[in-house]
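Q: How do we represent a protein-ligand complex in a form that can be generated token by token?
A: Start from the inputs.
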Amino acid sequence: MQSSLVVGSGFGGIASALRLRSLGFEVHVIERQDDLGGRAQVFEVDGYRHDAGPTVITAPFLFDELFELFGERRQDHVEFRELTPWYRFIFPDGDHFDYGGTLEDTLAEIHRIEPKDQQGYQSLIAHSKELFDIGFAKLAHQPFHEIKTMAKQIPNLAKLRSDRSVWDMVCKYLSHDKLRQAFSIQPLLVGGSPFDTTSIYGLIHYLERAYGIYFAMGGTGALVEQLRQLMLRQGITIQTGATVSEILTSQNKVSGVRLESGDVITADYTVFNGDPMHLYRELLPQNDIPFATKIKRDFSKLSMGLYVLFFGTNRQYPDVAHHTIWMGQRYKDLLDDIFHRQTLADDFSLYVHRPTATDPSFAPSGHDSFYVLAPVPHQGAGIDWTIEEPKLRARIIDALDKTMLPDLKEHLRAPFSMTPENFATDYLSYQGAGFSIAPLFTQSAWFRFHNKAEGFENLFLTGAGTHPGAGMPGVISSAKVVERLVKEASEKLPLSKEKA
Ligand SMILES: Cc1cc2nc3c(=O)[nH]c(=O)nc-3n(C[C@H](O)[C@H](O)[C@H](O)COP(=O)(O)OP(=O)(O)OC[C@H]3O[C@@H](n4cnc5c(N)ncnc54)[C@H](O)[C@@H]3O)c2cc1C
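Then emit the structure tokens for the protein with flavin-adenine dinucleotide bound:
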């Protein structure tokens, strides 16, 4: 049996491990954290549970497929509950916009804000479907490491004006500023400013409309746990608390990895699921990295950083939706501060997660569990978080106390936070970026880090920094690409037999 190593256990790593196992490979997963899941790790403090990262499940079929590889049904292990609304937007003037439910529900909400944008929204969805049919259905699972694949897609990408930004696309269809903001924030979920992110990501509107938005009961952590058990049932071996410090190479082949402990683990194929910026900076011999990859590594623009504040409350806020986007006063200007000027502004926009809206098991009875996320500059900005964190925390608590969470200061319990510094130290994300490199047109498809490493026949990449990109649907799709590439490579180059 041929052997494989998967370094990192984010959703891309887990999905790759399962897919390689379904091909008949021996699979060993190595993860530096104590638990699996990567950014989807779970914290539990004073009875309040928190998913650390992803909470919004789109494209549920991608998770189902992982169980189906082994003749199992995801529904038998973890329930996905559809949310209504999908998100609530709260604007600085106190107005709100509930997005989700049926098309009619969304149209009624749009009508309340700007009647003439109802038609525009339907045109936006029609455009989004075209993007989905190409960007997701045709390209997301396709390897893009060869320039000829990109060349073939250029007419499609040009026809859909994927050089245009998500913001430009949304403005073509919607006129009201509140709706423009609500329907353009999606790139922030994959690490980009709506003003710079390629409009290919406008496909998210159709993805949400066609398949809905779900919450995994028990949390995303419960989904990770069920995937862990599936891996164990299938004989995948898992090693946690172990960091890979070097990828061992000989000419153009990878023989395995060295851990920080000094242990060496060998395998026929290695799949790397951490940040490609870390892989190409720290783990591979610099002389063997091709020039073009070095250019990509040295000139890529990073996604933003994230400040995440976790807390409980010793009362409930029953009127607060499961997912709320709390919009600040500034939109483009704030995003320019974060992405271009790289300064930590005094103001912010927030994503507020209240899992207890759907699943009371996240907090003691009568309490709520929350996390609040603010996009901030990545560590390239040189922010000293030991100074800035307490100040930002106080500003956020104050703003929520005065608006959607009255008396929060009095009811707040067990607060703690993650800053970009934690993303750098916990996940080895370069500059603590929340989503590896940004989803720009010039960093997508062939221009993104390839799923097959240049220069090494048996090294593959899965996860947010690779094609197709960040977000759970993106990274799980990247594992499909890896499965295909490893299969092709193993047919061309049966390494174990060669060694024998
Ligand atoms: C706060 C937050 C909220 C989000 N919300 C959503 C959401 O609602 N919906 C959605 O779809 N997406 C969301 N995302 C994005 C999504 O979580 C990520 O894009 C995705 O989970 C990343 O998966 P990945 O496969 O790239 O691996 P990661 O989760 O990045 O995991 C990689 C793993 O590799 C390990 N590793 C790295 N280097 C080494 C090494 N040298 N040795 C050993 N181990 C190593 C790291 O410790 C880490 O555990 C969110 C992200 C964050 C941070």
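The pocket of flavin-adenine dinucleotide is lined by residues 7-13, 30-33, 38-40, 53-56, 189, 243-244, 273-274, 278, 306, 308, 373, 427-428, 434-435, 463-464, 470-472, 475 (CB under 6 Å). Residues 472-492 form the longest helix (21 residues).
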